TrEMBL record:
Residue ranges annotated for the Beta-galactosidase 1-like first all-beta domain, each copy included: 399-526
Organism annotation: Paraburkholderia hospita
Keywords for this protein: Glycosidase, Hydrolase
Protein name as catalogued: Beta-galactosidase
Top-level class of the enzyme under EC nomenclature: hydrolase
Signal peptide (from-to): none
Annotated EC: 3.2.1.23
Domain Beta-galactosidase galactose-binding positions: 551-608
Pfam families: BetaGal_ABD_1, BetaGal_gal-bd, Glyco_hydro_35
InterPro entries for the chain: B-gal_1-like, BetaGal1-like_ABD1, BetaGal_gal-bd, Galactose-bd-like_sf, GH, Gly_Hdrlase_35_cat, Glyco_hydro_35_CS, Glycoside_Hdrlase_35
Active site as annotated: 181, 255
Amino acid sequence: MKKRASTQEANTAGPDGPHVFSFAANGDGFLLDGKPFQIRSGELHPARIPVEYWRHRIQMAKAMGMNTIALYVMWNYHELTEGTFDFYTDNRDIGAFIRLCQAENMWVLFRPGPYVCAEWDLGGIPSWLLKHTDIRLRTDRATDPRYMRAVERYINELLPRVKPWMTESGGPILMIQIENEFGSFDSNSAYLEEIRQLWIRGGIHGPFYTEDGLVQLQQNHSNVAGGAIALSNGNAAQIEAVRKAFPSVPAMAGEVYPGWLTHWGERAFQGTSVDLSATLDELMRKNLSFNLYVIHGGTSFGFYAGANVDADSGEYQPDITSYDYAAPVSEQGVATERYMQYRSIIAGYLSTPLPPVPLPIETIPVTDATGTRRLMPQRYASIWDNLPAALPSAQTTHPRPFEMYGQAFGFVLYRKRLARYESGSLDIANVHDYATVFIGDQYVGGVSRTRMPEERALPLKVVHREPVALPGASSVPDDARVLEILVEGMGRVNYGHSMIDRKGIIDPVVLHHASGAREVLTGWEVVLLPMDESFVENLRPLCSKPDRAGLFFMATLSIDAIGDVYFDMSEWTKGIVWINGHNLGRYWNIGPQMRLYCPAPWLKPGDNTVLIFDLHQLDAKPVSLASTLS
């Protein structure tokens, strides 16, 4: 039988009044009211969890043996437009989330960025900053005052919401993280200190901490004065190494990965083979502090999933919609086999029993007497019959990115009438990130910034950064020689040095005529299609040209009682699904994700409206109901 660590007895006590959280004088560890304290944290992201499920997910972490919740605040989820903040609606109410943590006697590690990474669009930094052609991100005021002015406004907005929740005020927040994994990006102590001083000037004097990989921390010294050190992919050996290099402050395993992220086009979900048993056992045995990133990932609903750029190939790798992450608590909040395994390990070191595991959320029955339940959508509308007016400054010399037009997400249509036309090819290779191309009403091909796995891609004439072949002049009537390029912006890069990742058409478009002439196309019309809640609500059920790709389809899900469900989109191509106006995120036939999670609170007893926008599908296909991600 494992030896139970008596010093962990106090860890079950909750944040029930003013407390003093501090560091041991010799840097050996953390103290709560002067007594040794082990942080056992599980990461949850309020932005990825419906507000109705917040308490359930916190309780799931608690029942696995955690005493703390780590949470990211995604800046761009709260300041959608410059200078306008939302910390009130739905799952944006961070104060309400922290209040629930306290109600469940859980402590909090507060991770507000301004950069968070998190496989989230632009790492949480607002895309409207990219309207400045020469913007520098994650840097000090002297290098780019525009960035730091925005950071200051954001932190000033957080300060009055955070200060009442610090332990000294009777709240559950133990520490505030300064930036995130900055050692992987740069070496700039002035920048980190500027962020720390913003909190101090606002009346919060710490405790602070930073998060980095061990090597990056050692190379770039990205810790802050007096701050604790958290280690990405940390373990007991790395904590020991950091204690030798930085003996005056405590260290913890700040991100212990129970799974991993998945990109579109990968063969399978990543991280499913990870087993943390030995790592957790050692951390518990040595009474070391840690945070599981993530204990429950949730879902990157809407357009918020981020992206990476492969360090070796330079390939763009957008993240899937699901943030299941192979975490101990699944996307839909179910305790996995690993959850029960880790719970048993942690419980073996504690002197008081853990609470029972909360029951999973009910699911909708996905089978009936005839087998798997399926929806059969009907063609509903065409994007081409629902185009807003072109921008007032309609004629522009060259196409410009979304951000220059003040649009964060969705699609933009670039339109140009061709004065001269002959067969040839169209070069829009630097498109961010997926384009469908039309001459008149005819689809002529597309371009994907993401490499498409050949064995899974349908024959849609979509190329990877190559010119699109154009049909012969005789097949395109003179009065229909209008070039239209519909561009989907996918996730902005959220890690590394490729983060200034604007969306749309980045470089001039070149038409290579069959005669050999090269023509740079100028004089474009631009139509913004953010595909936001207002656009979907006002969609007109018109479809004058059903044989032109870019169609909406609608189905009705009739249920007696609400429950979680997945929509299986494996017979569709590429697009977005809404349920009762809620954006469930993207699907794409290149996988590996084929099902989109729909939480029960977004449904109602009776009839529910399922809306699908597909970039390629001309005919409706069935949508099966499922109870799991795969």
